[in-house]
Amino acid sequence: MAQRHLDLGWLRTFDAVGRLGSLTRAAQELGLTQPAVTYQIRRVEEQLGLSLFHRSQGGSRLTEAGEVLFRAVRASVERIDDAAQETLRKARSGDPDFYRLWFCCLLADAARGGFPSPASQGRSPYRGVAKS
Fold this sequence. Notes:
Elements: H1 11-20, H2 23-30, H3 34-48, E1 53-56, E2 59-62, H4 64-93, H5 96-111
């Protein structure tokens, strides 16, 4: 049987709860409701078959398994954020390699009959980057 991969949408939620030690504070930081945060955390716990937090009225503490996962998630979220910032920096600086890669992706999408890209509609696909 093929291995099921986890839905990765929970990464930021798990990261926030792990850092802040509170479902409520994580919900506030993420602009979500506390029940939505609780649902996401429970769903990943069900998928893994592990409890990731010790819950109490004073907050949520990571279990041993939660600590292991948190270290990996924290490092991953930081790398993703760094990569996004680097991508934006290159796009804003007019880096020719960035635009060559971007153009190749547009061509590949067009060859596959993909959806019209923002660029073909006169918009930049990257927020805050002006189309020249």
